[in-house]
From TrEMBL:
Keywords: DNA recombination, DNA-binding. InterPro entries: CB, DNA_brk_join_enz, Integrase-like_cat_sf, Integrase_catalytic, Integrase_recombinase_N, Tyrosine_recombinase_XerCD. One of its GO terms (biological process) is DNA recombination. The keyword Membrane does not apply. GO terms for molecular function: DNA binding. PANTHER family: PHAGE INTEGRASE-RELATED (PTHR30349), TYROSINE RECOMBINASE XERC (PTHR30349:SF81). It comes from Hoyosella altamirensis. Residues 101-270 form the Tyr recombinase domain. This is Site-specific recombinase XerD. The keyword DNA-binding applies.
Length: 286
């Protein structure tokens, strides 16, 4: 429960809309922080208060700023839709420029190092699911035995905004399915939350600890980036990769078509400042 007007109602409304617990928690946290730091109920803040609040957080990255802007827009749109506020202050605040992104996959050598590192069996299974099916950590955490159809073989995935999609299963994942329960959660929570699945944050921490111990840079999401980038490098067409990555827009998939580091380094390495053989050493007098 919060101490601000309508925030609790917004939280309930988001649950009814089947948004993920992580999304709801983050949105409520940011709106509550806005109210605390401005000293004003977040339902009543003015555009200039919002601008000053955002400007006071120079430590936020451009990506974080864009994310928080989106939370604010959704908050005020909801207030308007419920008849709780007439104006939308975000119209006067404006929209920050979305930073250009590029995938950051783990390298092949680091992935091999990670997979061969000693770890719990289920942690290894989670890592293989991430890099061979491209699932996000929150999606891995919610896998149930009932989601797997070995006759396909396919796996049903509960993705962003509660959207359910089926993904093809790699032969290694079929082998994993034979070792996991045919009913119930594959990655159950601990005794604090009996009968529930692991939280996405806990899954991320579990994989992240092994990555750190193995000396593998990046985050668990880098395994999903390896999945998308490697599919394209191995010749899969971009429409197929969009389906496998479950991107709603092909623009998201196009990020994975950026030239990877290896060809860049090879191209740079082929540069020859003495390609005109008749030239003298660099810096020699004419």
């Amino acid at each position: 429960m919060t101490n601000f007007m309508h925030v609790d109602d917004w939280q309930v409304w988001q649950h009814a809309s089947r948004l993920s617990e992580l999304t709801i928690t983050e949105r409520v946290r940011v709106i509550t922080q806005l109210g605390i730091e401005t000293g004003t109920d977040p339902a009543k803040v003015t555009p200039i208060q919002i601008v000053r609040w955002l400007a006071s957080h120079s430590e936020w990255s451009d990506s974080t700023m864009c994310t928080y802007h989106s939370y604010l827009r959704r908050w005020f749109k909801w207030l308007q839709a419920q008849g709780l506020r007439e104006d939308d202050p975000m119209v006067k605040v404006g929209t920050p420029r979305l930073p250009e992104r590029e995938p950051r996959p783990v390298s092949d050598i680091h992935l091999a190092k990670l997979i061969t590192t000693r770890m719990h069996k289920r942690t290894r299974f989670a890592i293989l699911i991430a890099c061979l099916a491209g699932l996000r950590v929150s999606e891995i955490a919610r896998i149930k035995g009932e989601d797997v159809d070995l006759s396909g073989p396919r796996m049903r995935v509960l993705g962003k905004r509660g959207k359910q999609q089926s993904v093809a299963m790699h032969p290694l994942l079929v082998d994993i399915a034979h070792q996991m329960p045919s009913r119930g959660w594959w990655f159950p929570a601990n005794s604090v939350r009996p009968g529930e699945h692991m939280l996405g944050k806990s899954m991320s921490q579990m994989i992240g600890r092994v990555m750190q111990r193995a000396g593998v840079p990046g985050t668990p999401h880098s395994l999903r980036h390896w999945f998308g980038t490697t599919l394209l490098l191995e010749g899969a067409d971009i429409r197929t990769v969009q389906e496998l990555m479950r991107h709603s827009s092909i623009a998201s998939t196009q990020l994975y078509t950026m030239v990877p580091d290896k060809p860049r380094h090879e191209a740079i390495g082929r540069l020859d400042p003495f390609r005109y053989k008749g030239s003298g050493p660099i810096g020699s007098a004419a």
